[in-house]
Amino acid sequence: MPVRRMAGQAVLSTCLPQACQKVDPLGSTLRLCTLCVLTASICWMGGTISFLFLPLRSVWSPSETLEWQEESMSEKGELVLKSLWIDDGSKTGQIKLTLMGAAGQALPKGTRLALTALTRIPKGTELIGASLARRVANYHEFLPIEPVVGDKAGCLWQITIPVLSHRPGHYTEGPSSAFLIFADNTTQAVACAPLEKEGTPYQPVDMRRAALPSDMSSTGPQLGLLPMANHVAIDSWAGSVPEALHTEGSCEQLDKVNALYKRLYQVDKGPFDPCSTPAPLTLHQGEQGLASKGKGAYRLLFSDGSVRLEAGDDTGRFYGLIALAQIWHGARAAPQAYAMPSDGLIEDWPSHQWRGMHLDVSRQFYAPATIERFLDILAWNRLNRFHWHLSDDEGWRLESLAYPSLTRVGAFRGHRLPLVPQLGWGAEKVGGFYSQSTIKTILSHAEGLHIDVMPELDVPGHCQSALVAVPDLLDPSAMEGGASVQGYVNNALNPGLNITWQFLETIFGEVADLFPGTFVHVGGDEVADGAWDGSRSAMSWARAKGHVDEAGKPDSMKMQAAILNFVARQLVGAGKVPVAWQEAAHGGGLDPDKTILMAWMNPETGPILSREGYRVVMCPGQAYYLDMAQGPDWNEPGLDWAGTTPLEATYQFNPLAGFSDDAQSVIGLQGCIWSENLLNRQLFNYLVFPRLSAVAEAAWLAPGKKDLASFAMRHPLMPTLPSE
Description:
Elements: E1 3-6, E2 9-12, E3 21-23, E4 29-32, E5 40-44, E6 47-53, H1 70-75, E7 80-86, E8 94-100, E9 112-117, E10 130-136, E11 139-144, E12 155-161, E13 175-181, E14 187-192, E15 196-197, E16 231-237, E17 245-247, H2 252-265, E18 272-273, E19 280-285, E20 298-303, E21 306-311, H3 314-333, E22 341-348, E23 354-360, H4 368-380, E24 385-389, E25 391-392, E26 395-396, H5 405-408, E27 412-413, E28 430-431, H6 436-448, E29 452-459, H7 464-469, H8 498-514, E30 519-523, H9 536-545, H10 556-573, E31 577-581, E32 596-599, H11 605-611, E33 615-618, H12 621-624, H13 647-652, E34 666-673, H14 681-688, H15 691-700, H16 708-714
Parallel strand pairs: 2-6, 7-14, 7-15, 17-18, 17-19, 19-21, 23-24, 23-34, 24-29, 29-30, 30-31, 31-32, 32-33, 33-34
Antiparallel strand pairs: 1-2, 3-4, 4-5, 5-6, 7-8, 8-12, 9-11, 9-13, 10-11, 13-14, 16-22, 20-21, 20-22, 25-26, 27-28
Helix pairs in contact: 2-3, 2-4, 4-6, 8-10
């Protein structure tokens, strides 16, 4: 019985009227009325939070399970939407939808079927069995062309979609949520079976984590260290592992690593204990030769059962303690495979100063506690940049004091809301946002983990949530312009309106004031060709400013460049460094001397950007987009626009290939987690881990030092997000 928290209220989706007392992960207790589930409250820290109730119903939620159980659904008498992709030899194939219910069941006149699916229906497509009443990106509404009545087998309605937006490669690209809309605008949930491929029945993949090794590798004991160190010279191994490492006193970094370990592994004791014996640990800082290796360098010297940690700075001490804690943890968790050194040396330093991980919180909202746990995992992997993707078409997650409607309206999706359901959610209101107070708490947490937080507000495209939340940003006379790759029309901020420039100045001013870090990401990706063609005000502005092509026609890329340069100048004036996706180099582009660009479309764009004078962060989708499927099998979840990316491909990828003398322009690497498909924790963990650790090791180790067999032995030790 999932509880979804939203800003300002809690919502309980009830499934079956049964007695229940459930302990919330934060320690609160949920109490329900045992008969009719009409009232509920949470008793939390001595207070009570009331619930807003949704109607009693049985509904499949994407957060509950990945395994489809059709028999249990039919036993409950629910409506079920089945979908089948057929390779008919055309460019995209076709999809057949079948709505199943009870024999003789009839739908009232005027009923529409709504669904969300990443595989969309192109404009003008003629359907068989229905007409398309409405489509907004991945959201579709269908009207029947004749009365809907169930046959003897319970088949109510069949729809054939002969042309698709693209050829699906995996079941996750099919319908992921559905509901009926009646003439009075009330709704009824419809369960969604996974999209099947003709001739390939749906069989969920095994998403269990890899087990710890049962024995040591052929080369002997392993260090349970990830990322692996750049220089390792172990002379001998300890025959046993102490219950804790004795320390002479305490320090702030030691306390932080102890607390981090206890949070990640959900235990009461950490690896370091001033009261334990033996294995004494001594801490030293400012040792000669480490500071020259860059921020975060450390040295561990093992001798006769004692350990000496040397570090050139606080970050190096923090990383050295994490490394020692990992080695200790591995030796205790699986002594048959890992061990503690008795004598030897580990000297280590990061090869890249930008070791990042991106998280899209717009498509799916993540609670603040989840963000903090995610930051813990990044720190344990010695990643030092958190790229926080706070806005997109599907949701605006950053509280603005100047524009409160951005989160009051733009943070929520649902039936009869300005933002329609998308990406696996049905009629219910879902979403959330981060208040500025919450953001400050998260920033403090990140600072304690030596992680810099880079916020992203994606402009000028990907702004549907902002446009519906602040209607003055819309050109009321605009006709339909070009559609984005996600299927949104007129989703870009309009440069022909004065309020657009006021909005940009105000909102990025708030960001610069709220986030103390150096870097602010301004987006700049996937603006549709002809995005503003339907707006006279935008076209007039472009001609007046000279943002036109050789034929005198307004140029979308030049228009985007003007918007991004306006934002970049403001950020530079506030002491920030603007960062953007690679398209920000188009149309005249951002100033290479003041801007960092991210190469995401393919590996070849990195060297091109470098030759244009930009500093580059390598994050190509072919290797470092962790929402890509891990294999070509239909039942593998994920997307495949950049191909499929098994763990070994992510690990073995060489981000510096193609660079020659300009490799110094690569300031680092980053993984990206886009959330369209990440409908539950199990799916998140399956797609993200251990590929996140593969990116971390690539960003830390010097070129040529990666070892896939060793990595395969070590990654099962790493923590993931806890089960929901």
